[in-house]
Amino acid sequence: MSNKRLKRLILSFAIFIIAMITIKLIVAFGGDMVATSHNVSTFTSKSNVNGNIKLTIGTLKGTYVVHDFNIKTDGEIGIPYESTVETGTVTLRVMKSNLVQWEKVISPSSTGLIEFDGVKGSYSIQLATDEAKKISVKLQTK
User: Fold this and answer.
1) Three-state SS across the chain?
2) Which residue in 85, 81, 76, 108 sits closest to 93, CA to CA?
3) Quick one: pLDDT at residue 33?
4) Where do transmembrane segments lie in this chain (predicted)?
5) What is the mean pLDDT of the chain?
6) What is the pTM of this model?
């Protein structure tokens, strides 16, 4: 085997090894990002007309913020809601500073009033699930 041919063979082998290592790294880290993704929603539609919020989600894995709001004065809070889920269970909850203020499990449907003692500050109404499909939520925030 000639010296030139041996150099080409070694170069080809080195390129092959580098390519394989690169592919393994992409699969390892890229696959990990997909596999550990906590919040995924598909086919999501949300509207807010004069405080009437309508949300539909095709598929949800993890959490989804439905509505953020602020309370300016302390007092009893009441927010009417309607919700349905076709597959799975979903928890509708109100959060303040990562603490649950109110929650309700929805499967297959629930209608009622989100009620809690509000303290001045920022709040978030969220949905949480391992996996659920065809979710619908309606809120009357005003």
Assistant:
1) CCHHHHHHHHHHHHHHHHHHHHHHHHHHHHHHHHHCCCCEEECCEEEEECCEEEEEEEEEEEEEEEEEEEECCCEEEEEEEEEEEEECCEEEEEEECCEEEEEEEECCEEEEEEEEEECCEEEEEEEEEEEEEEEEEEEECC
2) 81
3) 44
4) 9-31
5) 87
6) 0.72
